[in-house]
Design a protein that fits this description.
- It is a single chain.
- With about 150 residues, the chain is α+β, with helices and mostly antiparallel strands.
- The protein has one domain.
- It is built from three helices and two strands, in the order H-E-E-H-H.
- A two-stranded antiparallel ribbon has the order 1-2.
- The model has no long low-confidence stretch (mean pLDDT about 85).
- Pfam families: Claudin_TMEM179-179B.
- InterPro entries: TMEM179, TMEM179-179B.
- Keywords: Membrane, Transmembrane, Transmembrane helix.
- Belongs to the TMEM179 family.
Length: about 150
């Protein structure tokens, strides 16, 4: 019975991983689509006056971020969605049918899940640093642009 509770908890955690992965992948792909395939991560730019007489400013992008960073993060997000859905379904199947994993399958699942955790951590670090650079560029180092 205790093993069933552990498998059920793992199933719920994989389902939550699927939901949170979906919450992360959809806005990132929409963001990339809205900017015509350009990636906002690591993008640099500056505020410039439109002309001398009007004090209206607009943001000029100096350099777009590398598309590979957004592509990697989208790939990791979709891969984690697939992995978490497959694992949740598999564990739910084990729970309902009463099957058990072999030692080799448990070790293989440990390796795959560890690799997934590592890549998700790496992609979340890339997102944090990339959007931090973008926000610093937009707000001129953390302050609102002068008008």
């Amino acid at each position: 019975m205790a093993l069933d509770n552990l498998i059920f908890a793992q199933c719920i955690l994989y389902f939550l991983s699927f939901v949170f992965g979906f919450i992360a992948v959809v806005p990132l792909s929409e963001n990339t689509e809205d900017f015509g395939g350009k990636c906002l991560l690591f993008t640099r730019g500056m505020w410039q006056n439109e002309n001398i007489t009007v004090s209206k400013q607009r943001f000029i992008v100096e350099e777009w971020g590398p598309e590979s960073s957004c592509s990697f993060i989208t790939f990791v997000g979709i891969a984690s969605l697939i992995l978490s859905a497959v694992q949740a379904w598999r564990l739910l199947f084990f729970l309902c049918k009463g099957h058990d994993d072999s030692i080799f399958n448990a070790f293989l699942n440990l390796l795959i899940s560890s690799l997934a955790v590592f890549t998700v951590f790496l992609s979340s670090t890339i997102v944090s640093v990339g959007f931090n650079m973008w926000c610093d560029s937009i707000t001129e180092g953390g302050t609102m642009p002068s008008r």
